[in-house]
Amino acid sequence: MDNSDQILLLSLGTNKEQVKHMNDAQKYINQVFTKVRYSKCIWTAPIGGGTNLYLNCLAVTSTALSYDKVEEITKDIERRMGRLPKDKREHRVPIDIDILQLGQTIYHDKDWQRHYVKQLLSDIGL
User: Fold this and answer.
1) What is the C-alpha separation between 67 and 50, in angstroms, rounded?
2) Which end of the chain is more exposed for a tag (fewer CB within 10 A), N or C?
3) How would you class 1 by CB atoms within 10 Å of its CB: exposed for 0-12, middle for 13-18, buried for 19 or more?
4) Cα–Cα distance measured from residue 49 to residue 74, given in angstroms and rounded to the nearest whole number
5) Residue 37 contacts residue 124 (beta carbons within 8 Å)
6) Is the pLDDT of residue 86 over 90?
7) 58 three-class SS
């Protein structure tokens, strides 16, 4: 990382065509960011409803982009992969990409407490 770059940690999850959507999301992320490291993928039970298992992983890279720009990029990837506003309510998630950390700032506090996030953080060496 050079002086302008800061750590970016993303959480990826999908409960619809899980392996295909996870692979597609990683390809899109790799088109925008360089030197992305991914944790292994693990299956988890749904939280808050629905019956389909989720496939989850973490991605870590560095960027000089702002939070707003990174969020714009991740939401664009979600839309390109078919995510609709009503999908979350209907427990249909082609892909969900959350920013867990950018620089020294932590986001989505509840996610950091989830067992699979802790496991994947260890897997990716964070």
Assistant:
1) 30
2) N
3) exposed
4) 24
5) yes
6) no
7) strand
Q: How many residues does the chain have?
A: 126
Tokens 């067992």 belong to: 115
pLDDT for residue 3 is more than 60: no
Among the residues of 4-124, which ranges form H helices? Answer: 18-32, 67-80, 109-112, 115-124
pLDDT of the residue at 51:
78
- Burial classification of residue 49, based on how many CB atoms lie within 10 Å of its CB (0-12 exposed, 13-18 middle, 19 or more buried): exposed
Q: Which pLDDT tens digit goes with each residue over 25-75?
A: 999 999 999 899 999 999 998 887 777 899 999 999 999 999 999 999 999
For the record, the structure tokens of 87 come out as 């999908």
At 126 the three-state DSSP class reads coil
Strands 105-106 and 42-44: unpaired
Q: Which residues contact 40 (CB under 8 A, 6 or more apart)?
A: 57, 120, 123
